[in-house]
Amino acid sequence: MKRELLLFALLFLVLLVVSGQRGCKKQEKLEFDVQGLTMNFVEDAPPTEMVSLKSYPIYVDIQNDGGSDIAAGEANFYLSGFSSTVLSNVNTKLTNSGYLNKKTEFQQGGKERLVFATNAVPAKLQAPFSFTLRLDSCYRYSTFVHTSICIGKKSGVCSLEGNKITSNANSAAPVQVTSLTERVEGSKLYVEAIIENKGKGKVYLPTTNCDLLQQNDVNEKLKENMLEVSVSSEEGFKCFLQTQDYRTIESTEGIASLGKLTCYKEIGDEQTRAVPFDIVLSYVYAQSITKDFKIIP
Length: 297
Fold this sequence. Notes:
Oligomer: single chain
Radius of gyration: 27 Å
């Protein structure tokens, strides 16, 4: 009798697990490619230990690993962390001399080697001296978002429920739209997008002057966490945005902050239909890398 009860209990548990798996819709785990412009100090150029009065090259390799092209001269690079009395014959600012094409499944992203020095000379010192080279990049970039939404009230060919963003909805870029959801309130359909900085740098308006930003200009720093937005979809959509002088507007093009972007459209009592909903985010991205060095007398 006990054996029969045990078998019955096990059978019940199996049926419960199976029915639970069938009833639960597994959500897609989203993955985002957050690469943009990458940079690395070239190994042994210079070596981590340099001898006083000898000469060394300083090279940095850059590569566009994202989904937005960078024109020649549009990416700025600043080398800091030392004085000319410690390390001489070094350029402290360079720009990319060539066009850096975006990375696709058919081609690698554009590459370039930056030459900050060919004969950098460490000063004559009385004792070993350690310092850290810092390289800052500042460049204009864009994120392209392609997805579809559902418009209407009555049951039809699509559903308003769920996140409309999939793993391949965003182009490769440090700024991503991580969520896009819909809801109906009265006669309005609302679309809410969440814009996040998923990279390791900082986001600024595309009008930001990189040279002034590098100098910690207050006016340029006020543009942090803001970007330009352009929304393309069925006619009639409006988004809550700002103008260049920070006036609030309802448009499909303007300035937004990182976080929630809300758009809406007046709808009737029609059946649902699927329509494209595309977003272009434009911004300046600034990030940095460092490497430790030592000068030996």
